[in-house]
């Protein structure tokens, strides 16, 4: 059997590859092949590459999938003696991740590009490519676990042992077919244990810092990225000005576009009110941004769209769950009901702060991911 491991050049995917290669060397059956996904031309949009356009941001640290990461992945594969290939997914990545990212902000939402990338690229396309080279299964360095449940005949997605590094929130879109073909070698390990393994094996990236930023936004400034991307695409950016209003409808200021705001935002509002104000609502059609006190950020209900059910859930089913509305959110108790048209209704036991359209709502039953979808609307 051949196993394709996704190698991003970081310590996590490199350690996953090393563990799999060690098993192979000790008589295990999988033949391990390393694959790196080329997702974005880091020298694209030259206006973003350094303050003087000199390209200095092209090699900025803290981002995944950079040119340096490809170099590191190749080094690790050579060190481990693995066959290694780079596969170009740039076109599909732009279509499935970058454009929806831009369009989501223009709708007044706050997107989660990493979840889209996992669903549409790192698993859907990666599984297809692995099959084309004769690999029956894939492996990644994600902190999550997969388990087959014999009673239901379905695969389960479980949270990682390391709750701090757990990445199951970003993986809610995986299908049964993808889960059946996926290994997560790090799911039972803590980050400290992974670092220790990498050092013990003398991996070239053992002490490399973790990536933090969105890979295709070199400066970390999504507003500048959107402007540069739309300019490159030849899309005329019409005036998107509108009003910033108080909760009772009083005009407080003008803004340059709803894409510059997100629910819960406090800084950069351009309002001197003598007390902290937060973005509580965004109306892209009316080009209106509403601000208010922190207490006005709390909401009890949401509707999720494009829901993917990992557990077998039927339309009309209702169940108690813990729901995460962003990666760093502590799961909160709620009742979830499966609706038609790929939707789900969520009612929290207690109102939650800054429930944000465009983010993912992921449903947990203990350590198991039941499913998840994108927050479409928020209700009081």
Explain this structure.
The chain has 380 residues and is an alpha/beta fold. The protein has 3 domains: 2-200, Rossmann fold; 238-292, Roll (SH3 type barrels), CATH 2.30.30; 299-379, Translation factors (Elongation Factor Tu (Ef-tu), domain 3, Beta Barrel), CATH 2.40.30.10. Helices cover 24% and strands 29% of the residues. It is built from 7 helices and 17 strands. The strands form 3 sheets. The protein has a 6-stranded antiparallel β-barrel with strand order 12-15-14-13-16-17. Strand 8 and strand 9 (251-255) form a beta hairpin. The radius of gyration is 22 Å and the shape is globular. The chain starts with a strand and ends with a strand. Mean pLDDT is 91; it is low at 51-62.
SSE blueprint:
Layout: E1 2-6, H1 11-25, E2 31-38, H2 67-80, E3 84-88, H3 90-106, H4 113-132, E4 137-139, E5 144-149, E6 154-159, H5 176-180, E7 182-183, H6 191-200, H7 222-232, E8 242-246, E9 251-255, E10 278-283, E11 288-292, E12 298-309, E13 318-324, E14 332-338, E15 344-353, E16 360-365, E17 368-379
Estimated radius of gyration = 22 Å
What do we call the CATH topology of the largest domain?
Rossmann fold
Number of domains: 3
Helix count, per DSSP? Answer: 7
CATH architecture of the largest domain: 3-Layer(aba) Sandwich
CATH superfamily of the largest domain: HUPs
Q: Overall pLDDT, averaged?
A: 91
Oligomeric nature of the chains = single chain
Reading off the top of the CATH hierarchy, the class of the largest domain is best stated as Alpha Beta
Biggest sheet strand order reads: 12-15-14-13-16-17
Helix content: 10-25%
Instruction: Provide the succession of SSEs.
Output: EHEHEHHEEEHEHHEEEEEEEEEE
Query: How large is the share of residues in beta strands?
Result: 25-35%
Q: Give the helix/strand class.
A: alpha/beta
Measured between the Cα atoms of the first and last residue, the distance is: 53 Å
Main β-sheet, in a few words?
6 strands, antiparallel, barrel
